[in-house]
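queue> pop job 88
queue> type: inverse folding (structure -> sequence)
queue> payload:
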């Protein structure tokens, strides 16, 4: 009789734990907060943020979108080059013949490409700044450094990277 009572408690405890685990899984996957990865990674999120923060007019938004499209068409290939160059650099980790001169050559190329990218970004923001009123420009001047730093040192890094799918 004692053994039968122990088994009942064990089965009850096992059933309770199984139900608790199912409830936990359902809360994560079914009832949990929905996050659409496509929405989070859309490059337009920066544009939407600026439009909201600066209270941009429709005309300003249209001009911003136009400038943005041109900018990303020109800078995207450079970002892809930077990405490929970094990939080729780190693929050399297991290469015993990869010496300091080779390392210096690749990192110099990366530095030049990053310099070009930073210059292009600066020029883009400088041109975009002309779209705004003097009041908006003051706010824009404080927002841009925050946006750049928030994205890990540049728009070409992190979730807003237009070359990442």
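queue> result:
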């Amino acid at each position: 009789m004692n053994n039968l009572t122990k088994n009942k408690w064990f089965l009850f405890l096992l059933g309770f734990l199984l139900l608790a685990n199912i409830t936990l899984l359902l809360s994560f996957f079914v009832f949990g907060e929905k996050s659409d990865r496509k929405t989070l990674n859309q490059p337009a999120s920066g544009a939407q943020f600026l439009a909201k923060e600066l209270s941009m007019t429709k005309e300003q938004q249209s001009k911003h979108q136009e400038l943005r499209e041109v900018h990303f068409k020109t800078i995207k290939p450079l970002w892809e080059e930077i990405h490929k160059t970094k990939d080729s650099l780190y693929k050399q980790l297991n290469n015993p013949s990869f010496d300091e001169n080779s390392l210096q050559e690749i990192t110099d190329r990366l530095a030049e490409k990053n310099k070009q990218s930073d210059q292009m970004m600066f020029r883009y923001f400088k041109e975009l700044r002309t779209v705004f009123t003097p009041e908006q420009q003051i706010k824009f001047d404080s927002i841009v450094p925050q946006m750049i730093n928030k994205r890990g040192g540049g728009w070409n890094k992190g979730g807003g990277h237009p070359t990442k799918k």
